[in-house]
Amino acid sequence: MTKEQIKKLVVENTGIDIDNPIRKRPFVEARAIYYKLLKEYTLLSLAEIGDHVKKNHATVIHGIKNLDSWCKSDVTLKNKYLNSKIRLEILKENIKSDNLVLKKEINLADVEKIVDRYLNLKQKASKQTESNKELLEQVNCFFNILKNLTNKYNENERENRSLKRRFLYWKNKFKNNY
To answer: In 10 A of CB 27, how many CB atoms?
Structure first.
């Protein structure tokens, strides 16, 4: 798997030229997808990955770390990443199968393995998309509960401060009279 193949795949999948140094979010996200795929599918160092798009190794590390958190909150970005990864796996399998053809050792079992691998990857991607929707609903539910609890806590705090002020007022008044 070459960096040029991965770059072409990411550009096709995101519709964004990752060589463009623009710092707008879609460009940064597309480059982060590229960094992560290169890290997973090649033996390139972080500096070599960065050199390919004129960035330094720290930018590559930052992009890889942030991609995971961005994918948790942005389903579209996660789908782009997973789609790129699936297409890369298919490309990888095609390269393997091309090598088998060149060796003239291809058989039906190899083809079945490739098809099974593709179907498994496709199924995993759809399951992850569904679980992300459920997870997002749960997070929103917990957020609403937390918001309600925070509001109740703040109301109780205001009420307690008011009661404390009244208590101190009457305590001082009582002290001064006796």
So the answer is: 17
